[in-house]
Design goal:
With about 150 residues, this protein is α+β, with helices and mostly antiparallel strands. The chain is built from six helices and four strands; from the N terminus they run αββββααααα. Strand 1 and strand 2 form a beta hairpin. The longest helix has 19 residues.
């Protein structure tokens, strides 16, 4: 039982994207051992410092069964964001900040509508559908895009 779970985690990693195209790829596990009584898992030290830094901005509890059902990168990242900020009544970020968080760029799309449909609407619909009825999108709720004119 533990062996299969550890093997599945062994090939999993995370990607942290930064500014100007920078990125970091980190494996979740660097060591796993089960001696019949005790399961020992070790993560690379770099991931610990990243997790501590990340947690300062809010940590979310994620439904991993739902996460593993999702196929698209935006769906997974949006689920993580929803989980991370679910206890805040309001969460605001710029479109640029949102794009960094989900790993895309508004300039990659021909129009706002294309971006919105691909990154937001399709992803949220897939999260709802994959949740098996646990998540529902309420009309008029969920997210609001505000245009700031300066």
């Amino acid at each position: 039982m533990f062996e299969n779970a550890c093997k599945a985690l062994w090939n999993k990693g995370i990607e942290i994207k930064g500014k100007n195209g920078s990125f970091m790829l980190i494996r979740l596990l660097s060591y796993a051992e089960y001696d019949g009584r005790t399961l020992t898992l070790e993560t690379p030290s770099i991931i610990v410092s990243e997790m501590l830094d990340y947690s300062r901005h809010g940590m979310g509890i994620i439904d991993y069964k739902l996460l593993f059902k999702l196929k698209g990168q935006y769906e997974k990242r949006i689920l993580e964001l929803i989980s991370r900020f679910k206890n805040k009544r309001d969460f605001e970020c710029t479109i640029g900040e949102f794009c960094l968080m989900v790993g895309t760029n508004l300039e990659n799309y021909v129009s706002w509508r294309a971006f919105s449909n691909t990154v937001l609407i399709k992803s949220l619909s897939n999260i709802e559908k994959s949740s098996g009825g646990m998540w529902k999108i309420k009309s008029g709720k969920g997210f609001e895009i505000k245009k700031n004119i300066k």
